[in-house]
């Protein structure tokens, strides 16, 4: 599958295909980030992401988790979201990025993964945090991999059900 | 003719194979001398303009030089390019492709060249850019992308009732 479900949940999720503890910047617990490879949505707050960034053998990482405020409904094709995708392609690549989707037409946020020296600071430049507020979180190993950036310059989705940057029509 | 499916480091030091970058889309594959060449700078300004169309047209752009990844990354950022730059600092692929510019005995760069490719790396057209006017115009690139896209997309003709 080209996509999987991702959700930030309070406790370890039964049935998740990969998950890891999450921490706030001050080190306090922030729950678990869990991923499911299945068709039906596992929790109310789960969103579709590009499945390539999920890797159960992945190292710990910092992430920028961008979510819309309660009640906000922004079209995926909004100019701000388009520009964030352009900026993600133009800038120094992160270890992974995916937009979050619930349906075919709305932008439900993004997750951006960074590692190494200055990773936490770099995420302040996550292009998607210019659309909605980001939570900067530290994620333990076991969930997020490292994915080479998209070839570019495509910012469109390959079908409205596919999270960007998934980059082909054929789904292996 | 099918293009060599080479592997090189990209501007972020990831090893990338051409077929992986192409995936299922048409490709504009460009070989250029280096950031220092005014002719390349002029041509890149055209390509940067083209990316505003390419970004919604499901095609790929790839630029290759002998510059190290860090130099490619800086040049790419300065241009505002949003596609992949590959580094052949070791000139191994240049040798395999026989694309060394023999008249430059200082930098040993790529001879400027553009190939438009089908997703399976079949060459559609080749442009020899040694002389600037040998390079493709944006209109020629648009026509090439149209030709390839029409050939590979079974729904090129819009579905109608």
Features:
heterodimer; A: 172 residues; mainly beta; Alpha-Beta Plaits; 8-stranded antiparallel beta sheet; two-stranded antiparallel sheet; 2 helices; 9% helix; 29% strand; globular; B: 161 residues; alpha/beta; Glutaredoxin; 7-stranded mixed beta sheet; 7 strands; 34% helix; 20% strand
Description:
The complex is a heterodimer of chains A (172) and B (161). Chain A has 2 helices and 10 strands; from the N terminus they run ββββββαβββαβ. Chain A is mainly beta. Chain A has a domain at 47-139: Alpha-Beta Plaits, CATH 3.30.70. The mean pLDDT of chain A is 96. Chain B has one domain: Glutaredoxin, CATH 3.40.30.10. Chain B has helices at residues 18-22, 38-54, 69-79, 92-97, 138-152, and strands spanning 7-10, 15-17, 27-31, 60-65, 84-87, 113-117, 123-128. Chain B has a 7-stranded mixed sheet with strand order 2-1-5-4-3-6-7. The radius of gyration of chain B is 15 Å and the shape is globular. The model of chain B has no long low-confidence stretch (mean pLDDT 97). Classes of the chains: A mainly beta (172), B alpha/beta (161).
Q: CATH topology of the domain at 47-139 in chain A, what is it called?
A: Alpha-Beta Plaits
Total helical elements of chain B: 5
Kindly provide the radius of gyration of chain A, computed on alpha-carbon positions and rounded to a whole number of angstroms: 15 Å
The coarse overall form of chain B would be globular
Relative strand content of chain B: 15-25%
